[in-house]
Structure formats: C-alpha cells, structure tokens
C-alpha cells in the first residue's frame, strides 16, 4: 500500500510511545454533579495518553474536528496549527527541522501521533469520524489508511454546511465539508453502522388504493439497470406478458415472479393494463433506512444552524466554527448504541457533549462522553460552560467531571510523582502489565487483578514504607497462580519467593514506562 511521506514523519511515527504518562486531576469546583462524563483541559496528545489505562478499547465512537489548516494566520479555532503550543511541541519533538516545515508538514506531524492513540482507545467494533475540508482531505485520507488500514475505510461523507452561494468566491463557492469514517476493524462481527430512523414523509409514500389487507405499499419495477441474467419473457396468470425493456435486466428470478403472482403482490395498475410492478409493503420494511454519503443541511443542520445552537446557550458571544447539534447526533446515532462511550479530543465549543446529552434525553439512553480541549480560555469558559448551560436550559440529567492534566507519573529522576494515589498507580501498573483495563470492582486491599493466570499485587502508600515482608504473604490468595508483587523493597529471600510463587518487582525501577 502506498504511504505518505513528509518532513518530520520519522520523529512522530512512534512519538505516541514517548509521550509521558500524566495523571488526571479532578477539579471539583469546575465539575457539575457526579457523573462518568469527563471534560479534560490540556494538550490532547497528553490527555489521550492519560486515558489509555482507563479506556483502551472502550470507546465506541470518536468524532474529531481538527484544524482545517487553511493557512490563515488569524486566531481561528479550526486553524490553530500555528498556535504557540503546537509550534513549541513541534520544536521539541521534530527538532531543528521544524523550522523548515510547510503548513502541511506541521499538520501531519500534529495529527499522526494523536490518531494512533485514538485508534488504541477505540473498541474493536468502534469507528472514527473526522471533519475536514479540501485543504487536508487528501493527506488525512492517506494517514488514516496507514494507521487504521485501507480495508477499514467505511465512507467519505459530504456534509452541506452552507445553503447560500458566495458570490465573492474566486472559482467555486464552497458549500460542503467532508466527514471521513473508518472502522477499527470492519471485519469484526459486531461492527455496524445503524440505520437512520424512517421519517413520516418516507412512510407517507406508501399507499393502499386497492385496500390490500397487508397494508400500505409502494411498487418497484421488475427490471434493473444491471444484472447477469440474459433476460426472459414471463406470462402472468392473467395473461399479461412481460420482458425487461431493452438494455435492462430482470430484477427477480422466474421463481420469485411466480410466487409473487400467486400471492397477488404484482400490481397491474387500477385498470389492470399497466406495466406490472412488484408491491413492497410498509410493514416489511426495515425500521430505518441505510444512510447516504451526502448529508443535506435540512437533514443535519448547517453552519448557520450551528451558530444558532451556540447562541441559544451563549447569547453574549460567538464561536468561529461550531458544528450543529443535529450533525453530531446523526454521527452518534449511526455509530453507537444507548450505553456507549463517545470521545471528542478537539472539543472546541462542546457540541459533542451537548449532542450526547440531547440524545440521552430523547431515548432514555445512558451514553457517556469524554471531551478534550487544549485552549486555556476555551476549555472551562466555553466547552464546559456550554455543557453546563445546556443541561440547565434543556433539563439534561447528567453533569460532568472537569479534569486538568497533572505532572507526569515519573519525575525527572524516575521517581513516582508524590500526588499519585493507590488507585491511579494500580490502574497504571495493571495496564502496563496486561494491556487491559483494571476492574476496580475486583480490587481489594493490595490485590489489583488477575490476567492470564497471573495475579498482581501492589504495596503502595503515598507516604510510608512499601515493603514486601513475610507478614504480607498472608494476604496472598492461596492457590498455585503466579503472583507479581510491586513494592519499594523486599525482605524475603529467593527461596521464600519461589516457595510462594512470587515475583518481586521494585518500584520505581521495574515499573514499565508506557
């Protein structure tokens, strides 16, 4: 498969592994209620890394609206690839070459490690939707092919963001954006794109002029534009002869037509002399329709509607590039179910959180969201504030926990950060050992879980001696399983460790850096 290359790629391809693991610090004063929803303020690369021990493989739907990279130098949220934070990050990671990067190089360097972490957070039956325009659409598609694999491409959706014409455009009036969709694994038996609910207008197309006891129906031609059958002539029981028009093919087999004729589901018109067509009954239709790849503004909203959504919450100010709530609801409905987790790591104005809460209110669902926002003035004053105000205005039942990124878990000397508590450290230890998420319901005292017939224990107090001694052996489960125990010191000799089938790992030196 062809791959895309750019200046700085070598520095970022594996950079996700070099990002220091940081703890999430909950800010009670900025949180609303007691909820599993999260709003995180901080660099989304570091925030995604911080989420790994807790949410790897658990996110069903990811939606991101990254910088479109139009080249404008003014502060526009969707075009912040030249923001001081990104430029500082590029200089640190890419090095001196960062000074020679064009804006496309910078954008690709910024996106690549973030997309890798997002893929890891997706469940095996999950999917990602990325909003973009023509400036980076081609590059985005190639990077997604590389990270998610080409065979997991699902759709390239065209969203009509404007319904008016820009007469000052140089060549064409741009009225659409793209939303690119990939699956984590399209072959996974649980992967699915849900149907769109049928509308009253669609159902109204079904009529019942002949009072058919099977209910309202509409008809379908018996021929198709393509096929493999060379064609045939069919005579119905009423003597009407039919063959596909020139240049077309039979849609149905002879046996299917015989069965339909016998059951009375062929329509010959009110006078019985029309070209025969097959009846399709409303009660036989699926509960929804397969989504198209063109989404019109009247179905999912436009830029104008997005601004109105925002103004309904923030009448006192505006936001450069929000997305309409209806657009996000469409994406979430297609890609997830009522108890799933939704992630947006370029949260901006918080539309994704708003859409999740709105859907939960509509159908009684229990979806949860994680929003990540980098900009200092946006995270608390816009992203979180919008979700808070929307909950109050529309009566949504859920709130959120507001978090900041704290210091890295390991300090410059390799020691464990003082503020790390037992639960945080246990979660990290278990994840680095097993690459799976800890089940906190099974954690008891120093026991933190079992995986592949190996039990894991952690002796850790923020202040105090964390020693594996003879007295601790009484806390081990009495079975033949191998037992890995993390502690600062071990007072047991090798013979004793072997007798109890214990492997001692010293903190911090044998703690894996993820």
Account of the 3D structure:
The chain starts with 8 loop residues before the first helix and ends in an 8-residue tail after the last strand. The protein contains 14 helices and 25 strands. The strands form 7 sheets. The chain has a 10-stranded mixed sheet, with helices on both faces. Strand 20 and strand 21 form a beta hairpin. With 514 residues, it is an alpha/beta fold. The protein has 3 domains: 286 residues, 3-Layer(aba) Sandwich (Rossmann fold); 85 residues, no CATH class; 85 residues, no CATH class. 29% of the residues lie in helices and 22% in strands. About 1% of the residues have low confidence. Helix 4 runs parallel beside helix 5.
Summed up, what is this model?
The chain is an alpha/beta fold and 514 residues long. It is built from 14 helices and 25 strands. 29% of the residues lie in helices and 22% in strands.
């Amino acid at each position: 498969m062809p791959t895309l290359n750019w200046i700085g790629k070598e520095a970022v391809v594996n950079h996700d592994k070099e990002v220091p693991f940081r703890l999430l610090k909950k800010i009670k004063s900025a949180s609303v209620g007691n909820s599993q929803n999260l709003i995180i303020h901080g660099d989304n690369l570091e925030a995604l890394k911080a989420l790994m021990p807790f949410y790897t493989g658990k996110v069903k739907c990811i939606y991101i609206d990254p910088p479109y990279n139009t080249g404008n130098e003014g502060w526009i949220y969707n075009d912040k690839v030249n923001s001081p934070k990104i430029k500082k990050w590029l200089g640190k990671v890419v090095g001196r070459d960062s000074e020679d990067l064009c804006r496309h190089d910078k954008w690709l360097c910024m996106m690549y490690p973030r997309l890798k972490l997002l893929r890891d957070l997706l469940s095996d039956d999950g999917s990602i939707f990325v909003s973009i325009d023509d400036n980076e659409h081609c590059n985005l598609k190639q990077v997604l092919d590389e990270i998610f694999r080409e065979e997991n491409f699902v759709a390239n959706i065209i969203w009509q963001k404007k319904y008016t014409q820009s007469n000052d455009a140089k060549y064409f009036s741009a009225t659409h954006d793209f939303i690119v969709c990939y699956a984590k694994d399209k072959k996974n038996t649980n992967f699915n794109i849900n149907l769109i609910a049928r509308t009253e207008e669609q159902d109204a197309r079904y009529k019942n002029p002949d009072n058919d006891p099977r209910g309202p129906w509409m008809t379908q031609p018996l021929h198709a534009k393509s096929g493999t059958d060379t064609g045939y002539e069919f005579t119905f029981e009423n003597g009407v002869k039919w063959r596909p028009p020139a240049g077309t093919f039979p849609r149905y087999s002879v046996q299917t037509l015989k069965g339909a004729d016998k059951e009375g589901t062929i329509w010959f018109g009110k006078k019985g002399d029309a070209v025969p067509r097959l009846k399709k009954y409303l009660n036989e239709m699926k509960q929804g329709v397969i989504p198209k790849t063109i989404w019109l503004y009247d179905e999912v909203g436009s830029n104008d509607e997005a601004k109105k959504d925002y103004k309904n919450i923030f009448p006192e100010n505006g936001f450069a590039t929000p997305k309409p709530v209806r657009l996000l609801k469409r994406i979430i409905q297609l890609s997830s179910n009522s108890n799933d987790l939704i992630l947006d790591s370029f949260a901006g104005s918080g539309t994704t959180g708003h859409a999740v809460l709105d859907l939960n209110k509509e159908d009684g669902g229990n979806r949860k969201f994680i929003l990540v926002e980098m900009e200092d003035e946006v995270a608390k004053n816009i992203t979180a504030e919008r979700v808070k105000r929307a909950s109050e205005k529309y009566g949504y039942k859920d709130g959120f926990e507001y978090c900041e990124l704290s210091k890295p878990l390991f300090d410059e000397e390799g020691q464990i950060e003082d503020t790390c508590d037992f639960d945080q450290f246990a979660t990290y230890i278990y994840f680095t050992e097993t690459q799976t998420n800890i089940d906190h319901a099974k954690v008891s005292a120093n026991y933190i879980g079992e995986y592949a017939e190996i039990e894991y224990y952690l002796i850790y107090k923020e202040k105090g001696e964390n020693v594996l001694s003879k007295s601790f052996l009484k806390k081990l489960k009495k079975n033949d399983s191998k037992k890995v125990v993390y502690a600062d010191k071990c007072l047991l000799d090798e013979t004793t460790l072997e007798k109890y089938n214990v492997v001692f790992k010293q903190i911090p030196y044998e703690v894996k850096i993820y």
